[in-house]
Amino acid sequence: MYSGAALAGAAAFVATRKESSPVQAVPTFAAPAKSGAFSRALAASAGGDVHDATYYAKCMVGGVLSCGLTHTAMVPLDIVKCRMQTNPEVYKGLISGFGIISKGGASAMTVGWLPTLIGYSMQGLCKFGFYEMGKDFYSSLVGEENAVKYRSLVYAAASASAECIADAALCPMEAVKVRMQTSLPEAKFPTEFGAAVSKIHGEEGIRGFYKGLTPLWGRQIPYTVVKFVAFERVVEAFYKNIFTNPKDSYGKPTQLGITFASGYIAGIFCAIISPPADTIVSKLNQNDSATIGGIVKEMGMVKLATNGLMARIIMIGTLTGLQWWIYDSFKTAVGLQTSGGK
């Protein structure tokens, strides 16, 4: 994703605090660093966190906790959402959908929790870790002035790059999860993790785990760009217009509250833009003979955009707020600053 030449060039910078800049989420640059030390040379202007290998490793662990735990906790809602998308004749609404599934007991409400935990933990590791690297990388490419002036583009480029990698890590487990969660009695698809993996591999080979990657990118990359850009700008707005004192003057509970609120607002935007691709991913993984064109023709764009939308708004708004809160809580617990702001 990042070329060796660009990495070597980026290693020539060390980030320093620029007092006059209203934004500290984007690094500023000063003296040249030792060649080949990109991951050790960049530093964040926000609170002085040094962006070395240890910093990125901590961010990756925070991402594992952030995405793995939250997505696993939301499995019951995710099951209803997936079935509303793939079988709308039976699962006509959120409440009625819960009623149908709950008749199967606790096991029916937690189908697919293991591939969810594994897949989204890997996704979180890549998403947050490579996002932090990407911000530093792209900022070093465009220079201090442009990195601040066009910071939203820096956030967008970093988050899109990170999500490309994260989705490749997620895709196999997403395929298993969706097949397990949308399995109906007549389909006879196993709802046990090991058996589900074996069945997909036996019938479709490796392709069965990755055939949903393109629509997954179509769903997740716009979603993640909105998630990160909106979060960064909402946090910035909070500290610029409401919490106008220096960021460090506010206690960690206040800073984490701002993090959660900013994440929730960003999540609402994410939920609105992603349903068409989300439904296509669910349909592709449910039926091994399904195609993107066939799904669009069968359902139409209106249904693709609205099926499961209310469930997504509730799920993604809460999910995104919690993800950022967990991520920043972990960062503060290991001695780092909260994300964004001045």
UniProtKB/TrEMBL annotation:
Its main location: mitochondrion. It is found in: Mitochondrion inner membrane. SUPFAM superfamilies: Mitochondrial carrier. It comes from the Eukaryota. Keywords: Membrane, Mitochondrion, Mitochondrion inner membrane, Repeat, Transit peptide, Transmembrane, Transmembrane helix, Transport. It is a multi-pass membrane protein. One of its GO terms (cellular component) is mitochondrial inner membrane. GO terms for biological process: mitochondrial phosphate ion transmembrane transport. One of its GO terms (molecular function) is phosphate transmembrane transporter activity. Solcar repeats lie at residues 54-137, 150-237, 254-333. Belongs to the mitochondrial carrier (TC 2.A.29) family. This is Uncharacterized protein. It comes from Cafeteria roenbergensis.
